[in-house]
Specification:
The strands form 4 sheets. Strands 10-9-11-8-7-12-13 form a 7-stranded parallel beta sheet, sandwiched between helices. The two termini are 39 Å apart. It is globular, with a radius of gyration of 25 Å. Strand 9, helix 12 and strand 10 form a beta-alpha-beta unit. The chain is built from 14 helices and 17 strands.
Length: 448
C-alpha cells in the first residue's frame, strides 16, 4: 500500500467542486456498475487487510493512554472487523437499487402524466470521530445511492483514514468509469469550517460523534444537518415482564458494546417489579463488572449503590455504567423517557400486549422496541447492509439511515404539448383527472 498525499492538500473549494461534478456522473451509473464497484471495495478490504491493520496499529500506538477507553475501542481494527466490513459491503451490493424508482404516478389528463421518482441527494459531507471502519461502511452506501462524499475523520485515526482512502484510489484505477473526486478526505478542522460555508456544493452534512460535535456543526452552517445529539437510551421493565427473561436483555443492552450510541444508559424499573428484579439484577451486574447508580428508592433496595443525580438521567456514559430509576407505572416511564432521553432508542420489557402498544405509541423516539435489546438499533441488523448514521431528526430520514435516507425525489411531467391556459376558467376549460396510475406492471409503487 503506497499512500499518496491527502486530498486535503488541494483547496477545499476545488474538492467540493469536483465532488459536485462527480455526483452528477454517479447519478447516471447503472446498477451493475455500482455493484461492481462495491464488489471491488469488498475485495480490497480483504486483499489489503495486513496493510490496513499496520496503519491502524500506528494510530493505536499513538493514542494509547491519550483517549478514553470507549474511543480507543472504536479506533481499533482487527481481522474480524475488516471481514465483517467486507461482508457488509457485499450485502449492500445485493440490495435493490434505490435510484430511479417510480414512487408514484398520476394521470393529470389524457397524455399528461406526473411521476415521482427517487434520485440521489448529491454531495454529502460526513464528519466522524475515532472510527476508521465508518469509511468503508459509508462508501458502500454512497456508491449504491449514487452520491458523492467528502469525509472528515478524527485526527486520532489519521493513518487508518488515509489507508481507507487509498482503497478509493485503487478503485478508481481499476474502475475508470468512477468519476474523479467522488470520495475525498479532509484532514483539518479549518477545512471542515470552510466546507460548511458552501451550500451550493454540499447537499447534506452528517456528523457522527459527540453532542458537542453535532451542535457545533449545526451552529456553523446553512447546509441541512442530519444526526443525533446524544445516545441516552432507556429500557423500562413493566410489571408483566419475566425476571429471568429481562436480565439477559438488560445486560446485552448495556454491556454488549457500551461505547455504542444505542447502548442502554438508564434502566427504568416499575415499582411493582422492583423487589423481584433488582436483587437478582445486581448480582448479574456484579458478575458483568457493571457499575450501577440508583435513585433514592432504588438504594432502599440496593443500599450499596452510588446515588444517581439529576445529571445522570441526561448522561450518555459510553462505558459500563448504568443508572437505575424506579417509576410509578408506564406513564411515568414514558414521561421520564420523553423528558430526559435523546429520542434515539428506547425499550419496554413486558408480556402484556396493551402495555407494549401504549409504550410504542407514546415514546417519541426514532426506534422503539418491545422485548429486544437496544443494540438492535443498527442499519446492518435492520437489513440495510450498513448505515450512514443514526438520525433523531424529524426530516426525510429517521433512525438508522441506510440507502432510503440517501435518496430524495423529483417530479417528472410527461406531456404531449399541453398548456396551462387550456385548464383555466370555466367550461369549456379542460379539467384535471388526477387519477392514480400503477407505477409499473406488477411492481407496486415505492418498490423495486
Amino acid at each position: 500500500m503506497s499512500l499518496t498525499p491527502s486530498s486535503a492538500a488541494s483547496s477545499v473549494v476545488h474538492i467540493l467542486q469536483q465532488a459536485k461534478a462527480a455526483s452528477h456522473r454517479l447519478a447516471m451509473l447503472s446498477a451493475d456498475q455500482k455493484n461492481q464497484a462495491l464488489e471491488t471495495l469488498a475485495h480490497l478490504l480483504i486483499e489489503q487487510m495486513d496493510a490496513l491493520l499496520a496503519e491502524n496499529a500506528k494510530d493505536l500506538a499513538a493514542q494509547e493512554g491519550q483517549i478514553s477507553a470507549s474511543l480507543y475501542q472504536r479506533l481499533k481494527l482487527d481481522a474480524g472487523k475488516l471481514t465483517q466490513l467486507a461482508q457488509g459491503v457485499k450485502d449492500v451490493a445485493q440490495l435493490p437499487d434505490p435510484v430511479g424508482r417510480v414512487l408514484q404516478r398520476t394521470l393529470l389528463d389524457d397524455g399528461l402524466v406526473l411521476e415521482k421518482q427517487s434520485v440521489p441527494l448529491g454531495v454529502i459531507g460526513i464528519i466522524f470521530e475515532s472510527r476508521p471502519d465508518v469509511i468503508p461502511q459509508i462508501l458502500s452506501l454512497i456508491l449504491k445511492s449514487g452520491n458523492a462524499v467528502v469525509f472528515k475523520g478524527g485526527s486520532e485515526a489519521a493513518h487508518s483514514n488515509r489507508a481507507m482512502m487509498w482503497l478509493v484510489q485503487e478503485m478508481n484505477a481499476r474502475l475508470p468509469w468512477l468519476p474523479v473526486g467522488w470520495a475525498s478526505l479532509l484532514e483539518s478542522r479549518e477545512a471542515v469550517g470552510e466546507m460548511l460555508q458552501y451550500p451550493q456544493y454540499v447537499d447534506l452534512v452528517i456528523p457522527r460523534g459527540s453532542n458537542q460535535l453535532v451542535q457545533s456543526i449545526m451552529a456553523a452552517t446553512r447546509i441541512p444537518v442530519l444526526g443525533h445529539a446524544d445516545g441516552v437510551c432507556h429500557l423500562y421493565v413493566h410489571p408483566s415482564a419475566k425476571v429471568e427473561a429481562a436480565i439477559p436483555v438488560i445486560l446485552d443492552a448495556k454491556c454488549q458494546y457500551p461505547a455504542a450510541c444505542n447502548a442502554l444508559e438508564t434502566l427504568l424499573v416499575d415499582v411493582a417489579m422492583a423487589q423481584r428484579l433488582l436483587p437478582a439484577f445486581a448480582q448479574a451486574a456484579e458478575v458483568a463488572q457493571l457499575q450501577l447508580k440508583g435513585c433514592e428508592r432504588t438504594r432502599r433496595i440496593l443500599p450499596q449503590l452510588e446515588a444517581a443525580t439529576e445529571a445522570d438521567w441526561r448522561t450518555e456514559y459510553g462505558e459500563k455504567v448504568l443508572s437505575i430509576r424506579l417509576v410509578d407505572g408506564l406513564s411515568a416511564a414514558v414521561e421520564h423517557i420523553n423528558e430526559y432521553g435523546s429520542h434515539h432508542t428506547d425499550v419496554i420489557l413486558a408480556e402484556e400486549a396493551a402495555a407494549i402498544d401504549a409504550f410504542v405509541a407514546s415514546v417519541d423516539s426514532a426506534c422503539v422496541f418491545a422485548n429486544a435489546s437496544n443494540r438492535f438499533a443498527d442499519g446492518f441488523r435492520f437489513g440495510f447492509g450498513a448505515e450512514i448514521g443514526i438520525s433523531t431528526a424529524k426530516t426525510h430520514a429517521r433512525g438508522p439511515v441506510g440507502l432510503e435516507g440517501l435518496v430524495i425525489y423529483k417530479y417528472i411531467v410527461k406531456g404531449s404539448g399541453q398548456v396551462v391556459a387550456d385548464y383555466v376558467g370555466a367550461a369549456p376549460a379542460r379539467q384535471f383527472l388526477h387519477q392514480p396510475l400503477p407505477c409499473a406492471p406488477a411492481v407496486p409503487c415505492g418498490t423495486s
